[in-house]
Amino acid sequence: MNNISLFITGPVIALALAAGIAAVKADPVDDTLTIDGKEMISRAKAPEGHPFDEVMSGWLFRTAETRALEADTFVNPGMLEVEEGGAIWNTVEGTAGKSCASCHGDAAESMKDVGANYPKWDSDSGRPINIELQINKCREKNMGAEPYAFDKGGQKALTAYVKHQSLGTPVSIDLGQGEMQNWWDRGKELYYTRTGQLNLSCASCHEANMGKMIRADHLSQGQINGFPTYRLKQGKLISVHNRFRGCIRDTRAEMPKAFSDELMALEVYVTWRGTGLSVETPAVRQ
């Protein structure tokens, strides 16, 4: 790497990519992720039409120390919020005097594999719905409770708890539901559209430069099978729409609102790009 690349941090990484600064190749590790005795699928054959032959979990691109944190639920810092989500699951809220458990019982049974199949088509709203929006729908319609504001209250913790019940289950979404295919098409277009002052797209990092090192940052395929994810950099659990918005901010573009049509379409497409990978929630990333 030339000298200028030694000073690359944060969003300036994107500037380096745009300027064509040389990056060091660093292949993903050849290792197996096992959590609570379950072997995760961290490499899978890509679905038809995918730009890669193989899809790979972001876990394979992290340091040994970070990989070890995720592999041990006793030390995984994201599990604290999963436990908080378990408490919320059993907490009565709203005018109906219900909790999540009132309708769904034991989450280990009722939510098993559920998180691996979202986003889904929601006929009521006429658009895709993710776990966060499904939680809000249940809170309003069935519990008589206020919906969570984005990343507020127990939204991240409860989402992580629900997703954790699918730990190890391969990601698979049904594009045949409703108009999901149209939203996938829109998400794909957004994925490859360059935006912001740095003129970058999602594909600029996670496809064209996947596997390369720029300073201490190892660029992965940008898979979202581990969200909500505990990011060491921020010291907390991060939702997928928070991460989408952060990436867009780093291109110095105007950030869409969480759960906007743009970001829901992007979630549909990026989730599909990880088809076959195990749900790892809560993953640990740098």
Structural commentary:
The chain is α+β, with helices and mostly antiparallel strands. Helices cover 35% and strands 11% of the residues. Helix 3 packs across helix 7 (155-164). Mean pLDDT is 92; it is low at 1-15 and 18-22.
Q: Write down how many β-strands occur, each being a DSSP E stretch of 2 or more residues.
A: 12
Mind telling me the CATH class of the largest domain? Mainly Alpha
Give the rounded overall mean pLDDT. 92
Q: Bin the helical content.
A: 25-40%
Could you say how many structural domains there are in total?
2
- Protein structure class: alpha+beta
If strands are numbered along the chain, what order do they take across the biggest sheet?
A: 1-8-9
N-to-C span: 22 Å
For the largest beta-sheet, the strand count, sense and barrel status come to:
3 strands, antiparallel
Radius of gyration: 19 Å
CATH superfamily of the largest domain: Cytochrome c-like domain
Q: What is CATH's topology name of the largest domain? A: Cytochrome Bc1 Complex, Chain D, domain 2
Percentage of residues in strands: 5-15%
Features:
single chain; 286 residues; alpha+beta; Cytochrome Bc1 Complex, Chain D, domain 2; 2 domains; three-stranded antiparallel beta sheet; three-stranded mixed beta sheet; 35% helix; globular; disordered N terminus
